[in-house]
Specification:
Largest sheet: 5 strands, mixed
Helix content: 10-25%
Radius of gyration: 16 Å
Structural class: alpha/beta
Distance between the termini: 36 Å
Number of domains: 1
Strand content: 35-45%
Length: 224
């Protein structure tokens, strides 16, 4: 796949301020728990967010992990500040950061908008993270909060790879939009159980290299 970006328009979801159909850019980068090309991902995120063409920019899981292991907290924080500064007109979800603090290791997704952190979501279910931690003599730490937030009147959810379906497991079924940020889980339908009829799911999977959106309809629910 040689696309610089995958461009998606969600015709039935409107941007809270411009009231245009939401335009999403996905960075279609191959990612890996053994290390990803974070420099390339960062460059494309910044280019997309600075273009003024997109309302949301998204990258896959493991976008930020090096071939020498998890990022230091300082390295992760530098990226956080960079993306906060670039999110004035665009919501940025830069995949996940695998990072360490002391002997602890986290796999974290952030949502940035208007220079602020809208959400920090730590992966809840082990999908190979314990193997990464063991390799570097670290202890994996898993999140205890659901990945959900509100953007004006839009209800949004995020699931990281093995977490797919965790929102619906906790009786969340009202999301206008759910992101599955993954590296080896392309089961968007399970994440979309948390989506209301007429809402959308978007997948960015860096292993299978699947980057697309789907709309939940009465037909997909099996009621027609």
């Amino acid at each position: 796949m040689d696309q610089t970006l995958v461009e998606i328009t969600l015709d039935d979801l409107l941007h809270p301020e411009s009231h245009e159909p939401l335009k999403v850019a996905i960075v279609p980068e191959r990612t890996s728990s053994c290390g990803s090309d974070s420099e390339s991902i960062t460059s494309r995120i910044l280019e997309a967010s600075g273009s003024g063409k997109y309302h949301i920019v998204l990258a896959p899981e493991y976008a930020y992990i090096t071939d020498k292991g998890p990022l230091s907290k300082g390295m992760k924080d530098d990226y956080v500040e960079l993306f906060k500064g670039a999110s004035d007109k665009t919501m940025i979800i830069p995949g996940t950061f695998v990072w360490k603090r002391g002997k602890q290791m986290f796999n974290t997704a952030y949502v940035f908008n208007k220079g602020e952190t809208m959400l920090r979501y730590d992966k809840s279910i082990d999908g190979g993270d314990s193997s990464i931690a063991e390799q570097y003599n670290l202890n994996p730490v898993y999140g205890k909060r659901l990945g959900r937030f509100q953007w004006c009147d839009l209800k949004i959810g995020i699931e990281i790879c093995a977490d797919g379906g965790i929102l619906e497991d906790h009786n969340v079924r009202d999301r206008d939009l759910v992101f599955l940020v993954s590296c080896g889980n392309s089961d968007l339908d399970t994440s979309m159980l948390a989506v209301r009829e007429g809402g959308y799911g978007i997948i960015a999977d860096g292993f299978f290299r699947k980057f697309y959106s789907s709309k939940k309809s009465a037909f997909s629910q099996g009621s027609l």
